[in-house]
Write a structure and sequence with these properties.
This protein has 380 residues and is of the alpha/beta class. The protein has a domain at 2-45 and 97-161 and 252-320 and 364-376: FAD/NAD(P)-binding domain. Helix content is 31%, strand content 24%. It is built from twelve helices and 18 strands. The chain has helices at residues 13-24, 49-55, 59-62, 98-108, 149-153, 175-180, 221-234, 283-300, 310-317, 322-330, 333-343, 347-359; strands at residues 2-9, 29-33, 46-47, 68-71, 73-78, 84-87, 93-96, 112-115, 122-125, 128-131, 135-142, 164-172, 189-192, 198-205, 208-215, 246-250, 261-262, 265-267. The strands form three sheets. Strands 1, 2, 8, 9, 10, 11, 17 and 18 form an eight-stranded mixed beta sheet that branches. A seven-stranded mixed beta sheet has the order 6-5-13-14-15-12-16, sandwiched between helices.
Length: 380
């Protein structure tokens, strides 16, 4: 039987970041994922400089042989309306391809890998766990996304949760499509639905184009996506047919009741329901939760009782302002929609609120993670 200190289930940014931090402390880490990497992942695929900072990744090093598209501005508006364009004059975000980014983080983690293997069974054994009848672990970290099997073990019921749903596609444009595409690589475009229950996006990463739409209301998602694609054509942003989008779901922080910590088990990333409430972005909170979980595990010094992880649970619970979430739930939807559509026409609201706060997370409370790991450099 294989044995390890920590078994991480899920090899996305949350799991690989947690594994990387734990390996730096000398713990034996085994990472299990049902997919073989590199693999495609449905995701908008953009990160802020903060992501590179907390992981100690040099941008120029990562960009060698991989897509790292500098983003210096945005076009933001409502679907059907004229957008507001903002230029920061410097890179404030980067476009990445998840097939490359996730594989890079996974290989960099230096964890032992068991890829192409699903978690079928997980049973308690003394103070630890037995996974698939073949892996003995003192600690388990669930990093398997919205439908993480470890999350289900701790009581999560994905079918009954208020998840955000999205459909998107990413593809490499041919020569004719490149000529027809008016979306600029350095300037992604964001278009909010008229009811403000979701938004569509267009991210160009060199010759790759990522287009999608996500909504908190699951009703008629395909209809909303189709209308968005037609809008892009009529606005002459794209002049060609888009490949069929694929769907996925995730939980917003503050709307999930998942138990993120228990005896010898933690949830991180989308498994814990940590996507930003306003933007739905999940890469940064996934990575930061992975690092926070690693800090908690290291601090526990082998004593993995639930009480040892109360600081982690509290930190995750307070990652976003409960007051703001509560206010948003109680303002009538028509009032929010009408006010927001007007505000989306103003430079101030677009830059200070939509971009700086919602999408770039400049004032995010969750972005205050110790740099004890990132300060050590890339450690490839």
């Amino acid at each position: 039987m294989d044995s390890c200190d920590v078994l991480i289930v899920g090899g996305g940014p949350a799991g690989s970041s947690c594994a990387w931090a734990l390996r730096q402390s000398g713990l034996d880490v085994l990472l299990l994922d049902k997919q073989v990497f590199p693999r495609d992942k449905v995701c908008g695929g953009w990160i802020t400089p903060r992501v590179l900072q907390v992981l100690g990744i040099d941008a120029s090093d990562y960009a060698r042989g991989r897509v790292l598209q500098s983003i210096t501005g945005f076009r933001v508006g409502s679907i059907g309306s004229r957008p507001v364009e903002t230029d920061y004059g410097r890179p404030v975000s980067y476009g990445i391809r998840r097939c490359e980014f996730d594989d890079y983080l996974l290989r960099r983690s230096r964890a032992r890998l068991r890829l192409g293997e699903s978690l079928i069974a997980l049973e308690r054994s003394g103070a630890g766990w037995i996974a698939n009848g073949a892996i003995q672990a003192r600690m388990v970290v669930g990093a398997g996304g919205h439908f993480c099997p470890v999350a289900r073990l701790t009581g999560a019921k994905p079918a009954g949760e208020p998840a955000v749903v999205a459909q998107e596609t990413e593809f490499e444009m041919d020569a004719e499509q490149i000529v027809c595409c008016r979306i600029r690589s350095e300037t992604p475009e964001l278009y909010f639905s008229r009811d403000m229950k979701g938004y569509g996006w267009c991210f160009r990463k060199g010759n790759f184009l990522n287009i999608g739409l996500g909504r908190a209301d699951q009703h008629q998602l395909s209809t909303h996506v189709g209308a968005f694609l037609e809008f892009l054509k009529s606005a002459e942003r794209t002049g060609f047919d888009i490949p069929s989008p694929r769907g996925h779901a995730y939980l917003l922080h503050g709307y999930s009741q998942r138990k993120v910590a228990d005896d010898s088990v933690l949830l991180i990333g989308d498994a814990a329901g940590l996507a930003y409430p306003q933007s739905g972005e999940g890469i940064l909170p996934a990575i930061e939760s992975g690092l926070l979980a690693a800090q908690a595990i290291i601090a526990a010094q082998g004593h993995y009782a639930r009480e040892q992880f109360e600081p982690y649970r509290s930190r995750i619970a307070n990652g976003h302002s409960p007051l703001l979430v509560s206010i948003a739930r109680h303002i009538p939807a028509p009032a929010i929609s009408a006010a927001a559509r007007q505000l989306l026409r103003t430079q101030w609201f677009v830059r200070q609120v939509v971009l700086d706060d919602w999408f770039l997370h400049i004032s995010s409370q969750l972005s205050v993670v110790s740099d004890q790991f990132g300060a050590r450099g890339t450690d490839n």
